[in-house]
Structure of phospholipid:diacylglycerol acyltransferase:
Amino acid sequence: MSFLRRRNVSKSRSSDVSQIEEDDEKKKQKEKLSSEVKRIKKWTCIDSCCWFIGFICSTWWLLLFLYNAMPASIPQYVTEAITGPLPDPPGVKLRKEGLTAKHPVIFVPGIVTGGLELWEGHQCSEGLFRKRLWGGTFGEVYKRPLCWVEHMSLDNESGLDPPGIRVRPVSGLVAADYFAAGYFVWAVLMANLARIGYEEKTMYMAAYDWRISFQNTEVRDKTLSRMKSNIELMVATNGGNKAVVIPHSMGVLYFLHFMKWVEAPAPMGGGGGSDWCAQHIKAVMNIGGPFLGVPKAVSGLFSVEARDIAVARGFAPGFLDKDVFGLQTLQHLMRMTRTWDSTMSMIPKGGETIWGGLDWSPEGNYKCGVKKLKSNNTRSGGQTGRGNPSLPQSVNYGRVISFGKDVAALHSSKMERMDFRDALKGYNPANGCDIWTEYQEMGIGGIKAVADYKVYTAGSVLDLLHFVAPKLMARGSAHFSFGIADNLDDPKYEHYKYWSNPLETRLPNAPNMEIYSMYGVGIPTERAYVYKLTPATECSIPFQIDTSAEGESEDSCLKDGVFSVNGDETVPVLSTGFMFAKGWRGMTRFNPSGIRTYIREYDHAPPANLLEGRGTQSGAHVDIMGNFALIEDIIRVAAGARGDDLGGDQVYSDIFKWSEKINLQL
């Protein structure tokens, strides 16, 4: 009996073990099946995403092909039937006047408009040697999106190439003539210059890798040295005629850096000496220059947003944060763009002195929707401090970021704020995500502390970025500076980190050189933002522009959570115009040789119909490159004219009035 009992117990235990093993096996099979289903769903969604993007792109290329395949006379005939005879392009007009090529022309492209190609990559990039990863058709974006992001990103520690990857700028005029098929950047200007005799030997595209810091373009690619050599060669081979340099957008800051680099002694500089610019440059004609930065740079670094993305994010919550295609678009964009050190060159400079504080701003009385009449006011702004504080202000643009619409309008004396700088970070990540962004290291407490501070000015926004993106800002602070120099004779300002900030450096000793600021006006341009915390979801970016924040009237400056002011849709007038209206006007500590400065504003007029394309009177940040009036001004100067021959300043905005309100030691 005892034996039978032991046998039954043994059978029972054996049966239990078998059952457990069977259950474990079923569980493993179930998990494996579930994992496989998720994998299939993910890649099915990615394939669907790629198919959808491919369909849109293919449709666009087809329409573009059909339009371009038509005889040139057909769209021109239809357009002229609607709007009347088209004016001659500037090159044709000026050739009839007898103008011919004289001064060599140097183009300096801005951020994102220059092509980038692959020279070395990982296995996923097989077959892409010397193919464009940026610009052209952007085919690799939808063919292999994650591979594309990997190769467009830079090393998070050095800001240079990641191991095993080399992406380099496309060279030659084709580097930035078109951004994509049918979307011109420099092409229209080049074509018009060619009408008066310009060709490749008298035009040079100073292409550079716009992702990396300005000084690192020299460290890695010797780009600054090549620009110096090419300018010297073109001046020498064109009868000694000095060059006309035409930078656009961030290229304006890049060339500002170049002018200091070329004078500075080696090894930090180019060793050209203090008179190099005077000997080689006739004029610098800056187009859409963000001399004092752009608020868009703050929202871009803070939440990867501008107005358009914010609207899309608000219209379909979660669509971009936790993408339905499984790509987590915003997170990948943030990881990628936060490795591009050049973006930090466009953080607003000058702090509250330039951009305003909690309760004042230079443009405080700007009324959105009110059309300004032309005012050719060329006088220099006087020193009147911060303006009359009794004047009513419709918008306080000094608050670059406000958490809540009510907070944006509340007087600072009625505001309760909690300092975020000592908030606890780390250990308790706000979200779990396999795409690393520095937000994962902030913790719930750190995120809440940022919102509890409520309002950030151009001064405190630097502290904010150091708090939310310490690695990014550690790299950026080694290459860029955002303050105002107390004493420009201080030896510290000989360092390259100050060279692209016009408030911390001097213009060259070149009294016969001219500097122009040419930009569009009359377009609502982002200046300040209303933010909110996002719902705590997996892998989310914790902050976003509150697109529900709207003004009280149709003409309000607040729309979709963004306060707008006069500008070219990207750069506010204050940034493009202040140094020319006041900071560099006449002989100042920033312009000791008294280089002549000119403001040339172009009042925006949209195309009358679709057949006009992007228009010939546009003031928009990139479309202005096809503006006939701007092109005519450039060609006249390249052919030998000076600023006074163009009529001096051409001003539509309140830039002189706003500049008077800024109390800057000159």
